[in-house]
Every structure is written in C-alpha cells, then in structure tokens.
Amino acid sequence: MAICCFPNCAYLSETSRMIAIYKRLFAKREKVIIATHGGTYEFVLKEERIPFEYVAPIMSNERSQEFVAANRGERGLQGFYKIDELREHVQSEIDFFKENNISLVLTGFTLSNAVSTRAAKIPLAVTHLGSWVPPIFERKMGVPGPPVSEKPFIRLIPESWLINFYNWMMPRAKFFTKPFNVIAKELHIKPFRGILDVFMGDLTLVTDVPEILGIPKDELEHWTPKNLEFYSRTPQLKYVGAIYAKLFGDVPKDVKAFLHTVKPKVYVALTSSRPDYVSAVYSTNN
User: Fold this and answer.
1) What are phi and psi for residue 156, nearest 5 degrees?
2) Band of pLDDT at residue 245, cut at 50, 70 and 90
3) Which CATH number do you get for residue 216?
4) pLDDT tens digit string along 198-208?
5) Is the peptide bond before 57 cis (omega within 30 degrees of 0)?
6) Burial 79-94 (b: 16+ CB within 10 A, else e)
7) Which end of the chain is more exposed for a tag (fewer CB within 10 A), N or C?
8) What is the pTM of this model?
9) Cis peptide upstream of residue 51 (ω within 30 degrees of 0)
C-alpha cells in the first residue's frame, strides 16, 4: 500500500506543497509516490530530483494557464474541465491507483482526484483550500474578491449585503459541477452537491493557524455542517499550519536588508492572482 501525492503542476504553490509533504513522508519512511498530469511547474520536481509518474493526459503549459484562469473566474462558465477531458483524467487515475496499490491520495488541486478516488474507494486528502472552508462561510467571514468585486453593478451593492449573500451562496453554489456529476453518474458514485463539495476531500488540511484564522482548534476540527445536504460525505478539517517549501531562486538583497531592520513587516501572498494585482502591490510605497 502506498500514499500518492498528486500535485497540479499548473500551480507552483500546489507543486511546492506536495514536494514538502513528499519529503516529510519519505523521511518518515512511508511508502510514497508522486503522480501528476504535468503542467507548467513540473520542472520543479525534476530540479528537486524527485521521481514522479506521468498520468495521461499530460497538460501543456497553455492548458495549465487555462486551468488557472478558470480558478480566477476569468473563463466565465467554461469551468475547469470539459466532460470528455475529465473522463480521460479520471479513468487514467483509477487505473494508476489500482496498478500502484494506492491507499490514500493527497492532492494539490488536481480536481479530477475528487471523482477518481471516490470511484476507486480511496480516501482523499486536500491541501489546496487554505482557509476557504465551510466554517468561514457559516461565520460570515468570507469576502468576495476580484473579478466579482470589480464588476460595476456589484460596487453598487452595500458591502454588508454583499458579504451576507456571498457567505450564504458559497456552500450552495453549483457552478462548474456539471462535468464532475456527469462522470459520477457514469461511474455510479455519489454526485457532488456543489463546487465546495468538489473542492473538499475526506480530510481537508487547513494551512492556517487558529490565532490568525480566528476559529479555535477544537471548534474547527470537530466541525459538523449546519446543512448536511450541502455535502455528499462527512468532511473532516484539520489545522496543519503553513506548509513551507525551499525552492529555486534567492531572496533579493534589498528584501534581506529589510528583514534585518526593526520596521514592522507584513507578508502578503497573492495566490493565483493576476499579474496586474501583483504589480500594484509590489509598486506600492506606503
């Protein structure tokens, strides 16, 4: 039996998390392998000299960019996968899991794993949600970001109304779920109740800490849904803190110099953000 780390190499963040977890599991002498459909950042696995297996179909750099754009809401209702593409991903993954005697899959946003693990009756753990988990919405702590918040008509809505609606909507939202449920029906497995149900695993690793997120450890890790109909399984949450990666590149000299001053320091991570947002933050002087 083996653990399979399955990064979505369209993302550096998801690739680096899987590398960090793989190294930790390997150091603990667990039987662990990495599998991927490839993508923009698969070269990092090669640079780290970590053995990995390709699972067809292989994602090109262009396809990787489309996937990330879908995650940012820039592809409208096109979603993450077309039905035929998802079917191919899922069947290849099922075959791979069986051939390699996989007992647990840990993914970094390879969303096809949500279907293939359920069909193969293998537990799925995910790291990609960060703090975007149901208790956030139940506490009305979620805040809509761009591109939704940038639309002119959205700006006319009072902020309190918008936040209340956003937190009400997210557990109920079904956008992008059609391909997943078409394949689920073909495989005679439970359908997904919404997009959040697709994103979550049997175990969701929350890469945050109670002191920052604001939800006590016991409350988050013993959370049960207020609305069971939103989830096709009983999800479990667990705080694991930040998952750091030591990857390519050096810290710039001016950053190193700043870190050694007594000035207040704030680290801002703009994950999966558009280049213009990153540039705007980088160019801010105050």
Assistant:
1) -80, -15
2) confident
3) 3.40.50.2000
4) 999 999 999 99
5) yes
6) bbbeeeebbbbbbbbb
7) C
8) 0.88
9) no
